[in-house]
Design the sequence.
């Protein structure tokens, strides 16, 4: 699904999709992507 992204980016997007699902949303918005980045734990999460 996210094949054109780096492994870390894919992880963040999978986390984002999971968070959207947990929240009962049928879409993945910016808020979910930001949560996914934070959960991935890379340098971007430290900003």
Sequence:
């Amino acid at each position: 699904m996210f094949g054109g992204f780096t492994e870390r980016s894919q992880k963040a997007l999978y986390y984002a999709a999971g968070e959207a699902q947990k929240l009962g949303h049928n879409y993945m918005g910016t808020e979910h992507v930001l949560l996914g980045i934070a959960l991935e734990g890379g340098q971007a999460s430290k900003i």
About this structure: The longest helix spans residues 7-22. The helical segments are 7-22, 30-40. The chain is about 55% helix and 0% strand.
